[in-house]
Amino acid sequence: MRKEAWFGLSIMALVVVGLFWMMPPPSQITNGHMGLLMLALIVVAIMLGFPTAFTLMGLGTMFTWFAYHSVNPSLAVQQTLDLMVQRTYWVMNNDVLISVPLFVFMGYLVERANLIERLFKSLHLATSRIPGSLAVATIITCAIFATASGIIGAVVTLMGLLAFPAMLRAGYGIRLSAGAVTAGGTLGILIPPSVLLILYGATAGVSVMQLYAGALFPGIMLAGLYVGYVIIYAKIKPRIAPPLSAEDRYVPLPKFAEVITKTGSNNVIAGLIGALKGKRNADVSMRTVVGHLVVALLPLLAAALLMGSIYHAVTAQTLVDTSGLQEMGAVATTDIVEPEAGGLQEPEAEGGLQEPPVEGGQETPVTAGAAPESPQPPAETAAPVERHPAPMGYWIALGICFAGLAVFYAIFTFVRLEIFKMLLGSFFPLALLILGVLGSIIMGLATPTEAAAMGSFGGLFLAVAYGRFNWTMLKEAVFLTAKTSAMVCWLFVGSGIFAAAFALLGGQEIINAWVQSLDMSPVQFMLLAQIIIFLLGWPLEWTEIIVIFMPIFIPLLAHFNIDPLFFGLLVALNLQTAFLSPPVAMAAFYLKGVAPPHVTLNQIFLGMMPFMAIQVIAIFLLYMFPAIGLWLPSLVYGR
Predict the structure, then answer these.
(1) Closest Cα partner for 103 from 431, 591, 496, 433?
(2) Are 233 and 240 in contact (CB under 8 A)?
């Protein structure tokens, strides 16, 4: 028998032994203990290979009937069937889940737009002088593609076909190559738009928009830690990640660039400006020179637009509400009322409205349509105040920005211009799609469902723009979307029935009483919860952990005064282990399915271990510095 099978059987044996050790004698077993038995059975059944959704529904229905039968046997069947219908209707009526098929559809369309191959090629050329450049480009490509797609299996499979053979041909070690592909591919669990965050939000009752805002910077942090590890490891052991050869770094120049570099400067700005003035190169047209000069100046224009927007925001005018104020020496009109029998009345006026008495009590009559004689203009209800001066931090950031641009343009050669043009055709379309989807959600301009609909339209537009759209591709994307969405919905139906049965049996009360009896501090509870989730990631997938165990943890958060949003960010960061930890490391099996025959599953598992350790470090950093995840939601939503 294989080692993986022995490992799985040993974990199941530990679950069963622990269950019988914790259960009381048969004479003292209550309904609550039956709930704990159901919880242990679901783990064992899933590890044996039974479908998760239908196992949840089956065990949930059986134990629900048992709970109702212990109270009223004559109504047990009817009540069980009613509960199944109610939980199914709850899933069908959940607005949050509507965004799942739309985001999945967007991911499949982006996957088939053939952008990932161009993106990987341009990124590995852009990072060619960095140690471990191929692995770095792989992780960055996975992070970008995971943000646009969010489909873990698709990202790992595509990068396993594209980047994994390229790294092996370049002499990279199997473990480092496998770890870069699998760890980078699982970033879609955390980086929004993530289906995991949608499911957690629906389970915990947390705003998906706030979850997306909170998960953005932790996802970037984790990707940065991956890249940092690869660079340091490649620097220490260059034989594991040898630098690219000159042939691999070679970028062919177009004819106009060769002409300009021969007769002018190799620097893009100097060469193109030199080709514009005086006696131009006869073989280079004015249209070509101007077009490439505009392309070369795009980073400067983008930086100017960004810093200008920031300046407008930090120096914005503030409006002072003066609706309750009046001119000096004047009495408000509303104060001049004469008490009459029967109530309050407006002051009498002859020929129209009159100004209120001033100083000596005299009134200046004003006829209808005539201007008042008072030299003072009427008071405004809201007066604009001059713009605030920009803070010193803005000017420091502006100086750093333009200093960076100066360095960039000083080393901006025609070879780098060609790489930049490749990035324009691969990275920036995805970046615009990502910014449009995530920006509209985080800024509160659209709900996740509305943003997902626009993202699906954007993915369809990219497929058409890159000539990849056809009816076969559309049919495949729709079929895979329906398949994935059905899986998610059935999981929620099963988890709803299972959670209801667990609550009916009293299992939640037993767990709550047991945890509270331990008299733990919030720090100890958070540590215990994350360790349990980390260990559950070894035998179970993230979907099973979310739908089965999150309903158990969520009610305990209020007792320890823990923010469900912050807890969800820690869980999302932790649950990446479900894709990287054996024996149910799905990322490893995705890669093994497309890897060369000489690459073994054990090598892939060993390659993932350092990245799992990095995930633990990332969890520690997020817990020690909560602002990494909570700063953006507090800034946008005022939490």
Answers:
(1) 433
(2) yes
Cis peptide before 193 (omega within 30 of 0): yes
Q: 349-374, pLDDT tens digit by residue?
A: 444 445 555 444 444 444 444 445 54
H or E element: which one contains 343? strand 343-345
Beta bridge partners of 345: 338
Q: Work out whether the CA dihedral 215, 537, 499, 46 comes out positive or negative.
A: positive
| 267 φ, ψ (degrees, to nearest 5) | -75, 135
In the predicted model, is pLDDT for residue 336 greater than 50? Answer: no
Cβ partners under 8 Å of residue 56, min gap 6: 42, 491, 494, 495, 497, 498, 547, 548
103 — phi, psi (to 5°)? -65, -40
489 vs 101: CA distance, rounded Å: 10
* Residue 133 within any structural domain of the chain: yes
117 contact partners, CB below 8 Å, separation of at least 6: 162
Residue 547 is classified by DSSP as I
**Single-letter amino acid code for the residue at 223:** A
Buried b or exposed e, range 130-153, using 16+ CB within 10 angstroms: bbbbbbbbbbbbbbbbbbbbbbbb
The one-letter amino acid code at 160 reads: G
H helix intervals, 443-541: 448-465, 471-505, 507-517, 522-536
Q: Do the domain assignments include residue 42?
A: no
Task: Check: pTM over 0.85? Answer yes or no.
Answer: no
What string of DSSP letters covers 22-51? HS--GGG--HHHHHHHHHHHHHHHHHTT--
> How many residues does the structure list for the chain?
639
Chain-centre distance of CA 36, in angstroms?
34
Is the separation of the CB atoms in 564 and 217 below 8 Å?
no
Could you tell me if 222 and 301 lie in one domain? no
Cα–Cα distance list, 25 to 21, 28, 33, 526 (Å)? 10, 5, 11, 32
Same domain, 263 and 217: no
Q: How far is the CA of 622 from the CAs of 144, 191, 364, 558, 631, in angstroms?
A: 22, 15, 69, 20, 12
Burial 241-256 (b: 16+ CB within 10 A, else e): bbbbeeeeeeeeeeeb
Q: What is the DSSP letter of 354?
A: B
Instruction: Work out the angle at residue 250's Cα, subtended by the Cα atoms of residues 246 and 253, and round it to the nearest 5 degrees.
Output: 150
Confidence of residue 424 (pLDDT cuts 50, 70, 90): confident
Average pLDDT over residues 256-264: 78
Instruction: Residue 542: give the domain boundaries.
Output: 77-250+424-639
- Measured over the CA atoms of residue 306, residue 312, residue 315 and residue 321, the dihedral's sign is negative
d(CA 226, CA 615): 9
How many structural domains are present in the chain?
2
User: Given 377, 406, 435, which residue is the final one in a domain?
Assistant: 406
CA–CA dist 598, 176 (Å, integer)? 15
Report the alpha-carbon distance of residue 227 to residue 575 in Å, rounded: 20
Whether 292 is in a domain gets the answer yes
